[in-house]
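One example given next:
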Amino acid sequence: MRILVIGDVHAGLKALQQAMERAKVTPDDHLIFLGDYVDGWSEAVGTVNFLMELKDTYSCTFLRGNHDELCLDWLQSGEDNHLWLQHGGNATLQSYRQLAETKKEAHIQFFNALENYYLDEENRLFLHAGFTNLKGVTEEYFTKTLYWDRTLWELALSLDPKLTLKDAVYPQRLTHYKEIFIGHTPVTRIGKTTPQNAANVWNIDTGAAFMGPLTIMDANTKEYWQSDPVHKFYPLEKGRN
């Protein structure tokens, strides 16, 4: 069984389908989605529908992203969050206007069922963003941190590569897990469009919401497959650019 990690989709359904085709995904694979299924391109409803159908045939783990929580808040309350609208939410809102009210409940259930993190048998941690508690995710007091934090990736990037686990100043946060797989902070911010590794952290968000591709990576071998740059599927849209 391959463990395939999928980066932030941001409603780029066509890119997700292309990346899955290129990775030759089969029902024998375990698909771990790192969250942020909506907010960006125009296919928010289509993306969620696709994922809900996917879990009927494939082994899937769906993790919670910050944009998923923002969308859920809107679906449940109907109240517009102006910051959310400015960061991809407007495209999601427009997509949901085409969905019958009777079908929204299934989407609400999907978002409510998302997991904050996944820890596998090899002590590899998968989550959307990061954590701040020195003892690990199980001790994280503010659970929203698990899908909002950016300091874990910032810490990993800034770490002196000469440090070892035996050094007294080695960050305790990074000692609990064999590897950590995250999305949330696009690697395009550091000029990259492929999965990036720092310390024991792998960042799979390759900027699908902006000008980058969508990425699927094999957690075991680190082989990866990418879609075309997602914006090319939606030439008349801005995404989050």
User: Anything to note?
Assistant: The chain has a mean pLDDT of 97. Helices lie at 13-22, 44-54, 66-77, 82-96, 101-112, 145-148, 151-158. DSSP finds seven helices and ten strands in the chain.
